[in-house]
Amino acid sequence: MVQLKQVSLRLKSIKNIQKITKTMKMFYESSQLVKGPVDQKEKEKQPDIVADKTEDIKDDKMTKRIYVAIGRIAPVFADASAMAAAIAESGYQYDVGEIFYNKYFTPVKYELTVIPFFNKYKIETAPNMNAFDDVDQDQLECYSEWTLAALLYYVLKEGAASEQSARMSAMDNATKNADEMIKKLTLLFNRTRQAVITRELIEIISGAAALE
């Protein structure tokens, strides 16, 4: 027969785990990530540029690639600006680039999506640019850089939202699983306790009958 103490300890452990998963879900729901840009203040602080995994990628002898890793906090526009500046200062020539990112749809769904970005010449020769008068090269250069930074900021936010949503969903599922296990263990605990009580009563009655 299952020991009553073992069931009790297991039940207590699962309840503690459920408290942790509930707390983590609440944390991800109220995270700074889900707040709008108004809630964010620019800080004169450089982001964490290099992470451990990025160092491993750099050691892969892929010298023609540009690597900019973002820190583990919620992304801000300064992160996107740093990435856009790294691309601009690299001297790399391109016509059309592609950004791959996780697009957020629902708390349980996100998809790998591709969004293009263009160089200054492509923007200058775009059909809709005729709607603007007297756009000089400096303005075009500024527009090109800020467009890229805005796109990068958008995909960073989408990716971060997808990540936080996935974590929140995982904690929610873990909490539900813990709740189901708590119900099963509670039922087992009650049955085991009842069996112990019944056995003790039988022993008492048998002992009393033997004394008569």
UniProtKB/TrEMBL annotation:
Keywords: ATP synthesis, CF(1), Hydrogen ion transport, Ion transport, Membrane, Transport
The keyword Cell inner membrane appears for this protein: no
Compartments (UniProt record): Membrane
Molecular function, one GO term: proton-transporting ATP synthase activity, rotational mechanism
Domain of life: Eukaryota
Magnesium found in the keyword field: no
Coiled coil: none
A GO-annotated cellular component: proton-transporting ATP synthase complex
Membrane topology, as annotated: Peripheral membrane protein
Family to which the UniProt record says this protein belongs: Belongs to the ATPase gamma chain family.
Protein name: F-ATPase gamma subunit
